[in-house]
Amino acid sequence: MKRVLLGMLTPSSNTALEPLTSAMLSGLPEVSAHFGRFRVTEISLQPQALGQFDMAPILEAARLLADAHVDVIAWNGTSSGWLGFEADVALCRLIEQETGVRCCTSVLALNEIMEKTQRKRFGLVTPYLDDVQAAIVANYARSGFECVAERHLNRSVNFSFSEVEPTQIVQLAHEAAEARPQCLTTFCTNLRAAQLAPALEAALGIPVYDTVSTAVWKSLRLCGVDTRRVKGWGSLFDEEMA
């Protein structure tokens, strides 16, 4: 069986993403995840926080992952939610040019899923600040998606996102689902939310797309791995999509 190596770019202060990703892949013995970090400690619209997502440090982390001969590089972060989706498009293009490795991102994968399933009326759950949340909603609106309900925790310290209790995430998801969106996204790769998708889907009756899961889903598809082999992480992995 051919080995498949997934390269995951992640913010330096993320502690939720690596264990979630590794658990998600545990049933695929030929697939392994390898992580590259660059410094991100604050999520806000302040210049010092926005500057953390300059291309240079991200590209350097991607080059180091490419040294491991990974089959794909995924930006497992949600910054284009407030920076604009074109930031992820440009990042993927640059990484592919510099490394020769295929690239994807959590947010572009999420958008692809919502487009292909025609679930463009969505609920949004994040830990972010008021103005960051507003920027995400506006960015999606410009691209033809409608956020019908949102909940957020008004936090800015990236490390603190991983300390949000799953029970609180469940509560926010239930509140957002009251507006009857076609799907719901837990939108932050440092939330411990991906494992909640099956129970939330059963309770709410709609798909739940976590941004850690969307990056794994797209990475596996780019590598030709059948995502239906990922069990217990929500309906995303069973979706029939061209």
SSE topology sketch:
Layout: E1 4-11, H1 17-24, E2 31-38, H2 47-50, H3 55-66, E3 72-75, H4 80-83, H5 85-99, E4 102-105, H6 106-117, E5 121-126, H7 130-142, E6 146-152, H8 158-161, H9 166-177, E7 183-186, H10 197-204, E8 208-210, H11 211-222
Parallel strand pairs: 1-2, 1-3, 3-4, 5-6, 5-7, 7-8
Characterization of this structure:
The chain is an alpha/beta fold. The chain has 2 domains: 123 residues, 3-Layer(aba) Sandwich (Rossmann fold), CATH 3.40.50; 102 residues, Rossmann fold, CATH 3.40.50. Helix content is 43%, strand content 18%. It has 11 helices and 8 strands. The chain has a 4-stranded parallel sheet with strand order 2-1-3-4, sandwiched between helices. Helix 1 links the parallel strand 1 and strand 2. Helix 6 packs across helix 11. The longest helix is centred in the middle third of the chain and has 15 residues. The two termini are 25 Å apart. The model has no long low-confidence stretch (mean pLDDT 97).
Spatial separation of the terminal alpha carbons: 25 Å
Number of domains: 2
Strand order of the largest sheet: 2-1-3-4
Strand content: 15-25%
CATH class of the largest domain: Alpha Beta
**Mind telling me the C-alpha Rg?**
16 Å
Shape: globular
Poorly predicted tracts of residues = none
Biggest sheet: strands, sense, closure? 4 strands, parallel
